[in-house]
Sequence to fold (503 residues):
Amino acid sequence: MTALATSSTVAVVGTGTMGQGIAQVALVAGHRVRLYDTAPGRAGQAAEAVTGRLDRLVEKGRITADERDAARGRLSPATALPELADAALVIEAILEQLPAKQELFAALEDVVAAGCLLATNTSSLSVTAVAGRLRHPGRCVGMHFFNPAPLLPLVEVISGFATEEAAATTAYDTAAAWGKKPVRCTDTPGFVVNRIARPFYAEALRAYEERAADPATIDAVLREGAGFTMGPFELTDLIGQDVNEAVTHSVWQAFFQDPKFTPSLAQRRLVESGLHGRKAGRGWFDYSEGAGRPEPRTAAPCPAPGSVGLHAELPGPAVVLCELIEEAGIKVTRDRTPEEPEGFLRLPGGARLALTNGGAATPDVHGKHIRFDLSLDYRAATRIALAASAAVSETDLAEAVGLFQALGKQVSVIEDVPGMIVARTIAMISDFAVDAAARGVASPEDIDTAMRLGVNYPGGPMEWVERLGARWVRDLLDSMHRQSGGGRYVPSWALRRRADLEE
Fold:
């Protein structure tokens, strides 16, 4: 193992929330830590703040009072860069501005020893570009911590074009020694998490722009139907609409305005209005004192049908629905000679109920089609979205609503848009993950680890592809592309190849 010895000094440049968090992590791991900030007095204030955090760790029983006192003795503010000369590792956590980072590292190169590792905590800038002005760029590596750094375990270790393997390995092993879960990745826009997570926000915004549903309903469907901890609208309000939109725009530009990464006009207007989320008191939702949270669109109680007909097996994870229906006391009549290859349920009134396939529920005005949204675990899901074709009557829709309510699910009836809400989101995230793995951005295992730990996904997207099948994901995206055009939903070549191997 090549982790830095705890006798080595770690310097942190930039003393905002992230810088303080990184300093605390290194300090608790046993290193001497020096804090530096260009603003006079800021490093001293940050040192006091970190000391306060150590006091709270003692109160919570995470460390002993003796360990806190020893850590205090290892922490010191610096008033000038030359005071960082003995550092074995310098981690910068300054503003996301490339010229500022380049200038800082060029200055550090004149101060620190030749063996000192220079790490950038950038979340969206190119590590290669950050190191571009160094005489020895091989010592520069990305160490992207996630906020709050003391609590979240993930660290993305990014190798720039010139990063030496020994430097990346040392950064990886050091992060592991600090109790973190590092993943290795190449220097690509957004790295792992910010690249693969874009559809979680983008597809929700797109569905909103298509008037599929309001933000509260979209959030609820993704939380309660797919198992995400937070919905994309409440999460971007927490992150800050300006921050989230800036990262989206940065990744889009870095990919030469690839339509798969196109930012949202609705979010742009929100940012232009100054409605940046919780910190501004209002974003998608109102956070002012006394303001109530909007409720998701939820169907009123409807009677359950006495029986349904099953025409071929339902695809993917939806196959379990028949078990749930029978467990609820509803008879399932199986038709063993279906005329159509797609599995679906026939409701008593004649309407056809099927898992979304990426197309709209209205293939023609005469078909009585109702689509239900994807869930990765229909047993655990507590909310399901439904979309009906134009020919579906209120009675038909009530039968579908009552069926899912009998299974213990709340139902949100949304507008008929391609891919609904969960399915389009899961399919796009999965496609991004398969594409990233095929391009060598990170290993499949590291991709799943990064998405579970970095953004708390209910599973890894590479695992999702295994469960759903690459063919199902490809076909859904192909269908969405035919409906939408523009290239946004064209499956990646890597997904197509994986799907071909399943056939």
Notes: The chain has a mean pLDDT of 95.
